[in-house]
Write a structure and sequence with these properties.
mainly alpha, 7 helices, single chain, 195 residues, 81% helix
Length: 195
Amino acid sequence: MNLFRKKVDMLSGKILPNLLMFCLPLMLSSILQLLFNAADIVVVGRFAGSDSLAAVSSCGSLVNLITNLFVGLSVGANVVCARDLGSEDYEEVQKAVHTSIVIAIVGGLSLAVVGFCFSRYFLELMQSPADVIDKSSLYLKIYFLGMPAMMIYNYGSAILRSIGDTKRPLYYLSLAGVINVVLNLILVIVFKLDV
């Protein structure tokens, strides 16, 4: 079962180097994921105007809440997969992986629908400024449409972490971050799509 071979063996060798090899990519991934909204704020604020900046900024706390919630929920998949890998019960590992991916897809699609339909209501609950709530709602709708991909990433990276691989999720997220910034620049500057 080469697929389930651990990338970082935490049970042998010196603890500090193994811990650093595991934790540093994990910490960088978490920081990078939270910077996605910051990249949106910088590009929109620089090239689309103060109303657009206020609209995107007013969604920041809700976006960070959603991001942290799903990172936390995906830890459950990590724990189950790691437990089954540790006991070398590969049939249960496969069940856990498949269940996690189904939860990610169904949860992401459900959140996309709910978020798309109720984004304005969420912003009203947060008492977003009335003069930017239309733009804020549009930004939040677009953000919620990306929920299936975000959920699949978070659950997939949790599964990879269960085998000790924290580097590949960081690589995927870094690539997504570059794509996010490039698309932000193209869509806001070239196509003038604002938020």
